[in-house]
């Protein structure tokens, strides 16, 4: 039996988690929310977790909180700012100096509905951080993923991808910006990327699996008011009506460990509206099944990031 944090949530696939023993995993945004809850599960099962975080101090605090409950946990903290491609490249360089394999990459970090702003490289912040940063990170880590047997890439999308579209004529928001619209676009991009990545793995007979998931509607600290924390009454309300982070992390845990998954799946909660519940197969919105858009997004992403994937 595996229980997640104080919520005592039973994960029925506990035996399958044993495969994480001795494995190395990167989780972006692992200092809080879903990323932190997933990290707790993975370290309890013997995995070595690299917490890839923008704020090292918060990352160290999260690491300390894990060690308080598990003194044997193998967890380290490394600097990664997905809104800065130079930071992404530096992270990969540093990781490659310390590790010669990578079993699991969880593309979890994200920003939700900030005021209009741009990344260091001039991309709209949500598209640049949520999608392009992870696209570049995965591509630069591809050599390690390819050489590691049965490795996986898990990318977090969102219910917000439903009804979204990729506006290739306004990716930077210079022709108009609506925060939630651009968030939906970035989460649709995450899902299109995960699916296309798995397709290319299979086309080149690479064992690595790419799987997408979403947490339903989870009460994590991604819900902020601008750059400020939401008021306490609003936080309390969210935790009463939304899925707690420990439950929200289950689809990512499932996607990372379930032995029956073949790659290309989309995992989410099984409850009403797919907002809450236990992990199960979900069906992407029609907007995520447009092959022409998927291929164009891939080409645009390579050009914008300067990261070209080598599957040979």
UniProtKB/TrEMBL annotation:
Q: Matching SUPFAM superfamilies, A to Z? A: NAD(P)-binding Rossmann-fold domains
Gene3D superfamilies hit by this protein: NAD(P)-binding Rossmann-like Domain
**Stretch list, region Disordered:** 265-284
* Keyword Protein biosynthesis listed: no
Q: Which Pfam families match?
A: adh_short (PF00106)
A single Gene Ontology MF term assigned here is: oxidoreductase activity
Sorted keywords for this record are: Oxidoreductase
The identity of this protein, by name, is Short-chain dehydrogenase
| Organism, scientific name | Planococcus donghaensis
The organism's lineage?
Bacteria, Bacillati, Bacillota, Bacilli, Bacillales
